[in-house]
Give the backbone structure.
Amino acid sequence: MREKSLDGSVNYLLEKAKQKGLETVWQRSQQQEPRCGFGELGICCRNCYMGPCRIDPFGEGPQTGVCGATAEIIVARNFGRMIAAGAAAHSDHGRDVAKTLLLAATHPNSGYTIRDTVKLNNVAKFLGISTENRSKEDIAREVAEKAIENFGRQEGEIPFIKLAPETRQNTWHKLDVVPRGIDREIVEMMHRTHMGVDQDYKNIILHGARTALADGWGGSMIATQLQDILFGTPSPIRGQVNLGVLSEKDVNIVVHGHEPILSEMLVAASRDPQLLQLAKSNGASGIVLSGICCTANEILLRHGLPIAGNILQQELAISTGAVEAMVVDVQCIMPALPEICKCHHTHLITTSPKGKLPGAKHFPFTEENAYQVAKDIVQDAILNFPNRGQVDIPKEKMDLVAGFSHEAITYMLGGRFRGSYKPLNDNIINGRIKGVAGVVGCGNPKVTHDRAHVDLVKELIANDILVVQTGCSAVACGKAGLLIPEAAQKYAGKGLAEVCETVGIPPVLHSGSCVDNSRILVALSEMVKSGGLGKDISDLPVAGAAPEWMSEKAIAIGHYFVASGVFTVFGVGLPVQGSPVFSDYLFKELESVFGGMWAVEPDPGKMADMIIHHINLKRKKLGIEKGKERILYDMDMRRELSL
Amino acid sequence: MKRIYCKIEKCLACRSCEIACALAHSEYETLVDTLRDQKGVKPRVHVQFVDEEGTLRKVRALAIQCRHCDEPLCAQACISGGIKKDEETGEIIVRLDKCVGCWSCIMVCPTGAISKNENMHQALKCDNCPDKEIPSCIVACPTHALIQEEYDSPQNHEN
Amino acid sequence: MNFLIIGNSAASTSAIEAIRKHDSTSSIVQLSDEEFPLYSRCLLSYYISNTIKKETLLYRSKDFHREMNVELYTGKDFYATRLDVEKKEVICKNNRAFSFDRLLICTGSSPRIPNSIDEGIEGIFAFRNIADAERILEKIPVTRTAVVMGGGLIGIKTALALNTAGIRTFVVARSNYILSQMIDPSSAQIVSDHLREQDIQIFFETDVSEVLTRNNKLAGVRLSDGKIIDCEILVAAKGVSPNTGLIDGTSILKDYGILTDAFMRTSNENIFAAGDVAQAFDIVLEKQAVNALWTSAVQQGRIAGLNMVGQKTSYNGAIGMNSLNIGNLSLISFGITHPIDDSQYKVLVNNQPQRNIYKKVVIGADNRIKGIILLGNNSNAGVLLSLIQRKTDVSLFEEELLDDRFNFGKLLKYGGESEMDRYYKGMY
């Protein structure tokens, strides 16, 4: 049987859960087997009720839906809707951040403040907002208003695309895929994929690019930039990761979800002296706030607070019996949580009006009442501490360094006064670093948890490719010990290790949550602007990967990477493979349109081969191919990786 | 005799056969009514996971239904004498009026092809859709993975 | 050729069908001490609980013997009392003698009745045949409480039937857990809990020490711990022993039952035995054993019939197997489920008490499955049974055996080409 996870804590708790008869995502995944091939291949359409329709991929059965839609139309529409949903999720998150910034600027008692004025001024300048002789609140108000405008704008262009290299902007203009307003593009995608509208899969994918760009250079970008203004731009910070961070003697509150608007307030509330006193009087020595999923990344990056695990570990955290409250907001929260809470004392607390769960306690959280609600939640958790039953926390935990925003990378590489991407480019040109890969994305029980992330990243850094990470992928590699500077000596190739040691960075850079993939877009643009590596992102020796993806958000991210000129490989599979025509378009032809394209490869070893090959190709085109030979990984070495 | 077979490489595990089978054996015309039926409706074909060696996609699956075995263990195990092999057609027939739901047949069926209707205490299995020209699972299969073919018995095969 | 068959149940029926498949002319004479037409004993518990009608008890159509051209003699008079091996004849209670060329003994088994039990007392039953069932049915309307002696499969099935008939039922078990011949203590615990939920109370490690009567009618029982239960029905279900009386005084070899070879032949070449009375090869125990099971009786009867008619066919062997349903909780077990010496076996357990699932596989040192308990989810029980029957080496996939999804598909994977071939050719 396939092993469930690379992570010892997961396998340990799964064994325990099995003994206790608890059901987790892995059992449920197994119960879905065999999954429906039409769904997996993307060739079923439920967009209208003349259907549902399916295409026989073997060619004997129907080859069109009732309306006449071919396999490529069906997969393109489904794919387009996935992009729209993913972009909607990131962007709605961005909208809430913008509204919070507006609140912080206009309501001094809201509990939110503006922490990073340098970034505020930078963003303001970029948006053409005057900063002369103005209070930070006043500037922030205008920044927030400008940001909010982007969601509902009907014409024009979202401003952040101007962060991209000029050549890239020209490509977008030529293709007419520059996003106008964020909401508009998402709505238009829903319209185009309605029955009987856009029947040209290439056209759907073009609008898919526009929608995805509205996410990466729009919604996600706004979320990241404005979160930095509100809560501070991350800089390298030490932290710990894995379920071993849960504490036997403290009240454990796990925040799970995506938006730092909530978690930032919980961080503050967990340090409230009165509440700490209450914790003591209830028999705990203190309060430990840790995170799951992207919320975890947000509180790690800004406060150094521990990460309990990535998405697939959410049920297991509860199964330790040590969690007093799991506080959730939006995205990636499994509806199975109330069931596992029933067998433990853990209170499941929902906070967002957008995300409720029967069986959970709901604490209505708004930006206005944030601090009071946060305190109520912490108090609820403390009062639950005496109800603890048996506690079984796995030992596993690992140190990591995170917080590599593109600003931090600038500083690390160049120092305070001559901070730039020049040194990175120089090292790429001289071959010490072969290229850069962004490895991001979710966890998926269809494949061994964490394995593809860790195996891929190890092989890339061994071949002198600097890896930049976000989301659950970063957590996976963090748990595997790849996010500490010492990992350079242990796993990185000679050239990369040399650079890492000189600068004092790990070979794998944790840049944040999944909206923070926008940081990678900015970093790539900076690389182009620093010179020597071509004129466009598509000239750079870089690639993207989501080895264990599962969410629609991942598809949106993948497509904005591709539309920004990045070669992007997905693991697991892609629900477009039922149409060879469409697959060929995504996996081959798209490169001639955007300079970037999609690829699918479930095997991390082969995925590494593809990325290395692509990076070498780009180096060759740039005339910098010389350098040392790549380390060829044979099966034995790959097996070694897995240990 | 004619048996229903599944071409494993073509089965996409969509379970259309299961739905069509349940519907064909219910007293209702529509799926919605069938699912509302308090008597409990069960498919007599089961989509099962085989392995991860597929070509089009990783997963291989098959839809399995009664094999109408030569020496049916189910008929031997049946305590009510309700399961018999029809000597003419070779089909294994379950007489539901005799079935008491003891599940002895399930205890011995080597392919796990028998379903339990717990509400009615009845064992259900493939009857080759006697009233239909082509069994409903075959009609429903969107990839033509299911076929019905004349079975060349091992004895005939050797001769 | 003259065939003589003693007994009229599972083994004899399948023997007749096997003989007639190959020989439509030879004479078949059959003797049975029961008047009632061929019926299924296993259905009697369903009959007393009023779940089925009397007609449903019939195992074959009323015309079965006529259609099969069998000369059937029934009734107490035709109880076979003596076998003369030399003269090749069987003598009945009414002194009538029946001669044979080939004889099949399927005399079955009888309940073991403890000495403390007097069947002459109204309300005390040894539940064996349709006559007993009729007497119990008559008594049910005037019964509030019943006690079943014995926590084995028959005891529990009887208790469930009485419970379904609306009678408050107690089970007295001598062991410290029920179904001890069939399952292990952990699974028995789950079953006991379910019985308790159905309002069936079990007393463990005790026995009926005294029967209390009033006017020669049962009034109650005293248990060995002194506890008194007022009751109107007492059923003795302390297991069965093979009815080997017919061969007493002959040269035919017996151990616990009548010893048979792979062709269901006794030590006399013209005399065969099948069913509860026969001690035939057991696949798991790897020796001759008595398996008083319906399925074994049918299989053995068929093998005996085929060999009697000259179709040489050997018996693969019996496997202990039982199925029990308590409400919607279904239990199936095979072979050795609770080995005394654990060190000889590898035991794998999948226990999910919250979901009422308990599965156990006992694997021998030779990597062959020796026993299985499937409680809860057991729709693929037969797939696992086929692994025992075919003596499949399970070392490659033993971890998967207890998976809820272990099914025929998995078998195809691990069986490779030959299994695939078997599937396409329908060879089961």
